[in-house]
Each structure stands twice: as C-alpha cells, then as structure tokens.
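Q&A log
Question type: sequence-to-structure
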Amino acid sequence: MALGYTSLHVPYQAARCENRVKTVGAEESGRPIPVEQDRVVAWAQQLRHGRALRRVLERFDEAQIPALPVKGIISAHTLYSDVADRLLTDVDLKIRRRDFDRVLALGKREGWRVVQRMRAYANVVFVVEGVCVDIEGYPSVPGLSRLTVDAMIDRAAPSDVLGFPHLLPSFDDHAVLLLLNVFKDKLVHAFAWAVKDVERLPSHQDFDPLRLVEHLRKAGATTIGWVVADWMVRERQILGWRTVRDAIGPRPPRTPYVALLQWLREMQPRGTLALRILARAGADHRIDQAGALLRMVWWQTEAWASRWGEAPFRRQDPAHLRGTIASESQRPGLPKDGI
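Response status: OK
Response body:
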C-alpha cells in the first residue's frame, strides 16, 4: 500500500534539482552542458553527492536493504581519469522492486523530502542533505530489457572506490544500463554527460565487445545495442563501438523498427509523442515491448493524477526546496523518464 505522505512534482532535468550549475546552450544533444570553468564545481559535487550516498547506504544497510549505485557517481570513478570531468545532477541508486515500500517507509522515518514518487517504475526521489537521490527498482525504463536489478545486485562486487563501502556493478551490467539510458532519451536528446559515459566505455580495460553482445542478447536488448553502437560510430566517430555493432549483425535485429525510429528522430520535432512512444518499444521480444507500453500508460496515469492533485501526489508550494532546486524549474510538471 502506498504511503500517504505528500511529494512535490517538478521537472527533473540537468541543473534543475540540487545543483545550481551554470549551463550554456545545448550541444548536438539539445540539452544543457556544463561550462568548462566549472570543473571545481563538478569536483565539489562529487564530494557532496558522495556524502549523501554514504548516508543513504548506511541507513539501507541498517535496514538490510541491498542497493546498487549506478550511472554518474560510478562512471566518474571508473570511466574518467579525473572525477571533475563528470558532472552530477543526482545520485542514482537501484533497489529490488520488492523493497520499494520498505524504502518509502525508511525515507519517511528519516524525514527525507520526496521530490517524485512513481509506483509504475518503483521510483522515488529523495532530497538528502540537499542532494537528489533517485532510487528505482528497474535498470532503466521497465520493458526495455530483461536485465533485472536483482541480477545486477547478485553480480555486483563489494568496493570502496567511492571512499566508503558500497556495491560496484559488474562492467557489463553497467554498460548495458548506460546504453539503455541513452536509448530511452532517443540518443539525440540524451544529456551530454550520459553520452560521454557511453563514448568512454570502449576505452575501459574490461571492455570486451563479444562478451557485451552476449550480455545484450541475454537481456533481450540487441536492437537497442545495435542502434546505440551504430549511432556512436556514425554520428560520434567512436570507432570502438564498430565491433559491437558488427557482432550483432550487419543489419539491426528489427530493421523496419530501426528505420522508422531513425526517420522519426531525423524528421520529427524534438519531443514528438510518436518518437517517445516508439522508443519505449525497443526491446527484442514482443512481450517485453507490450509490457513497456502498458507500463508507460500506467506511468502517464500517475503523472496526470499528480498534475491534478490526486493520489499518490499532491501539488504543493516548492518553497521548501528552495536552495536545492534551480529557480527556473520550480514549477510542477511531468516527472523525468516519462513518455
């Protein structure tokens, strides 16, 4: 049963949560990127986000809730020679879906402010020490792959690369998650730093193209892998992805789907509904595609309910988050990862 405490529903994008990071006009991604002189800010973010993550993990450990840090906080320490090269906008943490209600209860006991809660994605975003901690029970948008957080946690290894004890995802699991993350944002609309993470994967010592392709096959995500790898080669000139693309096949596993996706991406306005819906059907198997679309409808129902002040959300004045959400975004709206 959903807990009845309120939350603020706000747009959730770069420089719109805990960070007041200076941004410049969009690159080819169409989204803000950090100005170069803010490397010191990025470094300070890493320290601040690390402290918030440590606090959350300590509380989770006390409650015996396994949790797996992913994306920026991990990429900064495993894909970059200097963590200041990787901007953070939040901390991403994956949990088992069956622990979602326990996480909500723990957050309520700790007094962590709720920014977003979407049961369709087993997702809640807490503000912890001024940092947004994005907790979710799926590796990416539900239905994009058969990779599960349970499997990721089982394969994760104990580590202290962040300066305190935590689980470190296996390289292949994290690589698949990063590919899914870029694909769900239709490639050209992904954040610049998320794209940079994927660009850097082939340079990592643990990158094995054939092993990654096998991982994608097991996850039912070879179509997504092919699309992202092909885009990396053709549009980003990252030739290390060519082996992955060619190992999947000279053509994408779902050629008509990929052709339509590419056409919409090139011809339709940014953010078109048709493109957003089509990007949710990227999995290899039809049952997963159908599940993703149904989950999207559930998500949208929750989003509409939140806009009109119905359960599980209630709109409220965002003044209580002043100082943690950039002023230009202090308006209720659709949450992140929507259709």
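Response note: The radius of gyration is 19 Å.
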